[in-house]
Design brief:
The chain has helices at about 5-10, 25-40, 60-70, 80, 135-145, 150-165, 175-185, 190-195, 205-215, 235-245, 275-285, 310-330; strands at about 15-20, 45-50, 70-75, 85-90, 110-115, 125-130, 215-220, 220-230, 250-260, 260-265, 290, 295-300. The chain is an alpha/beta fold and about 350 residues long. The chain folds into two domains: about 5-195, inorganic pyrophosphatase (n-terminal core); about 205-330, Diaminopimelate Epimerase, Chain A, domain 1, CATH 3.10.310. The strands form two sheets. The chain has a six-stranded parallel sheet, with helices on one face. The chain has a six-stranded mixed sheet with strand order 7-8-9-10-12-11, with helices on both faces.
């Protein structure tokens, strides 16, 4: 029995499927969830729900949800802790309870489909391929192998997700992505694909990127900066993408305060540096962090500083010193000088 058929058989035994996205889901996660829901429907599952926590703040992510009409529900812990018989729980584009999601640690998971590096993935059904460029690539393979009807919306969602996750086939791409794209292309709505690729962005996002540009420190080809306090979570990866292109910069790491946590985003085309390992080793003891060799992220609770809002400038100076010191130590960069 093939892997897609094994998934189909597991789904056919359920009456309900709850697909939990990671916090602040992106197109790869959302398109994968949409595809898994279609597979579940074909397997006879009566109800499928796509659940998420956090915010959908990136302008492309908001456009993705709105233009494709994806029905999302706010995650409620009771959904996974008080499951009736026949209710299945799935993760797409992430794999571990409590890591970039609000599912309690130790919760039994039925289905995991992911492409991010991870240790200890545990579920009744696991397809964990950290060598492929996108989770949507794996779900496209399932759609094709199980002969699921591929309408324009689903095809467009999956192709856009693959393009976005691989930076238009420039990052982490494999032959699997090209094969998936060739299969999807014939059913894509090209006008919708263009709309998804060129959404407008908010003034706050622009301000956050400008703040990161002004606060940048560069040392030995490593750039570290912050966007201050913002509600636009996805301004961090956008700032990291932009600043990683600065001449002389091989690694860009951006942080910012969002609500009661510090968020980090890293970009590193430098083959000598594994961005995911750097963030995990630097901040794994105080939060959750990790990712690929060239793209990574993390989240650290503010803790005792959560209510410290009267003087953001002083708080950011403290955080900048602590975060920079930890990163320099992990990257073996001398921190005698701040310039």
């Amino acid at each position: 029995m093939s892997t897609p058929q094994q998934l189909h058989e597991l789904l056919s035994g359920g009456s309900e499927l709850n697909i939990v996205c990671h916090n602040n889901p992106d197109p790869d996660c959302l398109a994968s969830a949409l595809a898994l829901g279609r597979i579940a429907e074909a397997a006879g599952v009566e109800e499928s729900h796509i659940l998420y926590d956090g915010d959908i703040s990136h302008q492309q992510n908001r456009a993705f949800v709105n233009l494709l009409g994806i029905e999302l529900e706010q995650f409620d812990p009771a959904t996974v802790t008080d499951r009736p018989p026949g209710s299945l729980l799935a993760f797409v584009d992430h794999s571990v309870p409590g890591a970039n999601n609000k599912v309690p640690k130790g919760t039994p998971i039925d289905i995991v489909i992911d492409h991010h590096p991870s240790n200890g993935v545990d579920a009744r059904f696991v397809d964990h391929r950290d060598h492929v460029g996108a989770a949507a690539t794996i779900l496209t393979e399932y759609i094709q192998d199980l002969d699921i009807e591929l309408d324009e919306a689903l095809a467009t969602a999956l192709l856009f997700a693959i393009r976005r996750e691989t930076l238009n086939f420039l990052r982490g791409v494999t032959s699997d992505e090209y094969e998936a794209a060739a299969y999807l292309q014939k059913s894509v709505d090209n006008e919708l694909l263009h709309q998804l690729s060129a959404p407008s962005f908010t003034g706050e996002t622009l301000d956050a990127i400008a703040t990161a540009i002004g606060n940048r420190r560069v040392k030995q080809s490593v750039l570290i900066s912050h966007v201050g306090r913002t509600t636009e979570r996805d301004s961090l990866p956008q700032a990291a993408d932009y600043l990683a292109t600065l001449e002389g910069v091989e690694t860009a790491i951006i942080f910012g305060i969002i609500h009661d946590a510090i968020h980090l985003s890293a970009r590193s085309p430098d083959p000598r540096i594994h961005a995911g390992n750097v963030l995990r080793k630097a901040f794994g003891d105080v939060g959750s962090a990790g990712g690929h060799h060239d793209v990574a992220g993390g989240e650290i609770p503010l803790g005792i500083f959560a209510d410290y809002k009267s003087d953001d400038e002083q708080l950011l100076r403290i955080l900048e010193e602590v975060i920079t010191t930890r990163l320099y130590a992990e990257l073996n960069i001398n921190n005698d000088s701040k310039k």
